[in-house]
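Subject: Sanity check before I submit

Could someone independently write out the structure tokens for this chain? I want to compare against mine line by line before I put it in a report. The sequence has 122 residues.
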Amino acid sequence: AQHKSATAAYFEYLESLAPHYREILERYKVEDFAVKVVGVGSVGTLCLIALLMASDDDPLFLQVKEANASVLEPYAGASEYPNHGQRVVLGNARCRPPAICSWAGHIQSSADETSICDSYAT
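---
Independent answer below. Compare away.
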């Protein structure tokens, strides 16, 4: 999978949000990332926790998870979405209350940069 820098990925994530949520998160800057150990169903995928800060006493943590092709693709066909992260975000939005999915966004991999792949953040 192709990757992009954490900063570029964060700006792309912001662009995938509804404008009223993007406006709130634009106050935050990426301070750090930590690799997270994933559960059994996600073994082999990248999972990060991002620390964002708006000020010294205003932290926000986002989980960033790599999104691969659905295990159902061989049977149901390819997703209608060009980005696996977008498929996860929009699929979850259909099934969950809006408040749970408000901050969910996606990131597309790119052939010319190097560090976050097709992913989604919640």
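---
OP: Matches mine. For the report I'm noting this point. The CA atoms of residues 4 and 114 lie 4 Å apart.
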